[in-house]
Design a protein that fits this description.
The complex is a heterodimer of chains A (about 350) and B (about 400). Chain A is an alpha/beta fold and about 350 residues long. Chain A is built from 10 helices and 8 strands. Chain A has a single domain, classed as 3-Layer(aba) Sandwich (Alkaline Phosphatase, subunit A). Chain A is globular, with a radius of gyration of 19 Å. Chain A starts with 5 loop residues before the first strand and ends in a 16-residue tail after the last helix. Helix content of chain B is about 50%, strand content about 10%. The longest helix of chain B is centred in the middle third of the chain and has 23 residues. The chains are: A alpha/beta (about 350), B alpha/beta (about 400). At the A-B interface, helix 8 of A face helix 7, helix 8, helix 10, helix 11 and helix 13 of B.
């Protein structure tokens, strides 16, 4: 592996089922993944999540390589060291070399584990674009009318008061770091149609400004499925499909990233089967049935074999040791095994 | 707290009258169950006064069976539940008087301990054993479910009923004139022909159709009538979170428990003692169905699911209407969904999936192989009909009336 390679991890913090994505009947919803990305990718058809099927705790498990057990709705950090800590400590990288862009429901604590003994202070910076926009709307002179749709927070339990935000980077600091005014940020937000688009916009700025070597973005729009409106869920999947292609284009058109970046795309888990009696199909992910636990992963990059499909089952916690093996840093406490097909 | 073996008649002092009598009558069976199962049974039993007749019957048959079992068979049936380790904290909860809260804590615990799959396996095994032992009675007449989608939508490019087509016949040239009246007449006729308490339902995504008024034996539920109750629910929740939070945060379990404790009076649902069961059902739909407060399409799908699952009707007519357009959640929770711009195309997609889910839910009931299912793109000539009398996976372009399609399904 080249020394300065970079990795971008795209997770969907809103599960998607095969039926609406890679199964024959779902492929119409993901034209970009099907026609643009898969031909360049190694595609893993089975990634099994054996942990808790809540988006924050599951994403935290992806990031630690251990199935975390905390309450999905609690304002807590992952118990075990995150891949960001392994990366920075193992390679001696500065703070701006790894960033997380996440939806705002609880994810503010995902950059740094709570354990504190392995690599205190080596966590990633976390950006919650929706919180930034909310802050910007309070500061900007622009008429904020009409931007509230980008602030949608938690679909999983709309009546739950979100946890307090303590650790994510603040608006003034970020805009200063990105050379972006609150007005610019808000003006651009007006051209967008969803919160995930806002996240990708922030990601683009981070790439240009800091070119972080390990960048993690969690997309969330499709989790609108919890409202039971199938059309909105499908709309979310289609938007996510387009954004994945845009992210890859951003990578390919940026000299700092082009030809040295591996991109991994994976939903955190699936959603309930239509035929699980205790569930209500696509709406939730509560049954723990095989469909809700099984999803896929796509890997693209200069060292990834193109147009290959791998049907053996991976485990969600294989991600961290794989990132470690790809980028040459140890992940001593992570479970799972490196995925040999991408090394 | 007490162990199941220590249950006494006095343990159920806080239960409503019928629930108390039921629990006391079945005390020996309850005392023998492991905690995890007895709490789940009590979660249903505490609602006994507001259960549909079919639910009461099933609960009684379940406990009769358990009460008659010899020790070896009983222990074997309970073994998977007994094998699941519970924390001392769970055992300390008041699972007798507050089984719903116990259930919420139990679920969180099982997920956190990676025991949820084991629990689901135990529950499935138990359910299968019950089904085998309590072979369902055959229904008096085949069930009929009729769904209409696309109310008021002039045309669409969407390929409708794709998921249902493999199971039935797609008619593409049905005369839509007076289709709704024909279907309502069919529902009314069945309600008269097979009188059964809560056996015939009409669930409407907008205002209930005038043709349904005064139909004897038909249980009617409409989104338009329940919107004020949904708004009241949100107002109460806001009050609760503000009061309980005190500027801090309120746990999701606390919110869930509060919602589960709401009753028809809390939500302003008025009625007579005769329809008390229906009012409680309406509260359950509004408090347990995510999204059905804000989107009428979700309301119809979820209410139909719950109706089929709980009341197990002989006849169900589910009529989808257009839902409001999507918006930020805080706006959706605050505004009147009936007074907003609508999303016809999205509603049709939702309803198409909702129809499929309704068919799946009907298929889970006794007599499924004889059940009939019809879905119609309202106002248009497209009907998909599933019946043992019709071919599967075929399309008919011949002209027909709605009455003829119904006759072919008999």
């Amino acid at each position: 592996m080249p020394r300065y390679q970079k990795t971008v991890v795209v997770t969907f913090g809103g599960g998607a089922r095969d039926e609406e994505t890679f199964a024959p009947e779902g492929q119409e919803n993901i034209p970009h993944l099907m026609k643009e990305l898969i031909p360049q990718a190694t595609f893993f058809t089975q990634v099994v999540n054996r942990g808790i099927l809540g988006h924050y705790v599951a994403t935290a498990s992806l990031a630690t390589g251990i199935y975390e057990r905390f309450d999905n709705f609690a304002d807590v950090a992952p118990e075990n060291p995150t891949v960001f800590e392994y990366f920075r400590k193992g390679l001696g990288r500065p703070v701006n070399d790894t960033w997380v862009i996440a939806p705002s429901n609880g994810f503010n604590r995902i950059g740094q584990s709570a354990g504190g003994t392995f690599a205190p202070g080596f966590g990633a910076r976390v950006v919650l674009p929706k919180h930034l926009l909310a802050a910007a709307l309070g500061k900007t002179s622009t008429n904020p009318s009409g931007l509230e749709f980008l602030l949608q927070d938690n679909y999983e339990d709309v009546l739950f008061t979100p946890p307090s935000v303590q650790n994510e980077i603040q608006l003034s600091k970020l805009t200063e770091m990105l050379h972006l005014s609150a007005d610019d940020f808000t003006h651009h937000a007006q051209t967008l149609s969803s919160a995930d688009e806002l996240s990708v916009y922030v990601m683009h700025h981070l790439m240009r400004q800091f070119a972080p070597s390990l960048l993690w973005i969690t997309l969330h729009d499709m989790d609108v499925a919890h409202t039971g409106a199938y059309s909105l869920y499908i709309e979310g999947i289609r938007r996510t499909d387009r954004l994945c292609a845009e992210i890859w284009q951003m990578i390919e058109s940026d000299p700092e990233y082009k030809s040295r970046t591996t991109m991994l795309i994976l939903p955190d888990f699936g959603r309930d089967s239509d035929f699980s009696p205790s569930g209500n199909g696509f709406q939730h992910h509560r049954t723990g049935d095989p469909l809700s636990r099984t999803t896929w992963m796509m890997a693209l990059g200069p060292h990834i074999r193109q147009n290959r499909t791998v049907d053996r089952a991976l485990d969600s916690v294989d991600l961290v040791p794989t990132l470690g093996a790809m980028m040459n840093f140890p992940t001593p406490l992570a479970k799972g095994r490196p995925i040999l097909e991408v090394l | 707290m007490i162990a199941p073996g220590e249950l006494r008649a006095e343990s159920f002092a806080r239960y409503p009258p019928q629930a108390r009598s039921f629990a006391v009558a079945n005390l020996p069976a309850l005392q023998r169950m492991p905690l995890i199962l007895v709490a789940l049974v009590l979660r249903q039993a505490i609602q006994y006064d507001w259960c549909f007749p079919r639910e009461q019957e099933q609960l009684s048959r379940q406990l009769d069976l358990l009460g008659r079992m010899d020790a070896a068979s009983f222990d074997a049936l309970m073994a998977p539940f007994s094998a699941i380790q519970l924390s001392a904290e769970l055992g300390g909860l008041d699972w007798v008087s507050e089984p719903q809260q116990f259930s919420e804590q139990l679920t969180a615990y099982l997920w956190s301990q990676h025991q949820i799959d084991r629990y689901h396996e135990a529950a499935q095994e138990y359910q299968q054993a019950l089904q085998k032992a309590l072979a369902e009675k055959t229904v008096t007449t085949p069930r009929w479910t009729i769904v209409t989608v696309g109310q008021g939508i002039p045309q669409t490019e969407l390929p409708l009923f794709r998921r249902l087509l493999p199971h039935g016949t797609l008619f593409t040239n049905v005369d839509p004139s007076d289709g709704l009246e024909v279907l309502l007449a069919e529902i009314g006729s069945r309600a008269q022909q097979y009188p059964l308490e809560y056996g015939h339902w009409y669930i409407e995504g907008g205002e209930s159709h005038a043709g349904s008024k005064g139909v004897q034996g038909l249980t009617v539920m409409s989104y338009a009538r329940l919107v004020p109750a949904a708004k009241r629910e949100f107002a109460l929740l806001n009050q609760f979170t503000n009061r309980a939070g005190g500027g801090g945060k309120v746990g999701v379990e606390a919110v869930s428990s509060y919602i589960a404790g709401l009753n028809p009076d809390d939500l302003g649902l008025k009625g007579t003692s005769a329809d008390n069961v229906l009012r409680h059902f309406e509260v359950n739909v509004l408090t347990q169905g995510a999204g059905c407060q804000i989107y009428s399409t979700t309301f119809v799908q979820w209410a139909a699911r719950e109706c089929l699952h709980r009341a197990q009707p002989l006849t169900l007519f589910a009529r989808f209407a257009n839902r409001q357009r999507s918006a930020p959640m805080e706006q959706l929770l605050a505004r009147d969904p009936l007074q907003q711009p609508q999303d016809p195309e999205g509603s049709l997609t939702d309803a198409d999936m909702g129809a499929y889910y309704t068919w799946i839910n009907q298929s889970r009931l006794a007599g499924a192989d004889q059940s009939r299912f019809l879905v119609w793109f309202e106002g248009h000539g497209v009907v998909c009909a599933v019946s043992p009398t019709l071919a599967q996976g075929t399309t008919s372009t011949a002209s027909a009336t709605m009455r003829q399609v119904l006759d072919w399904m008999r």
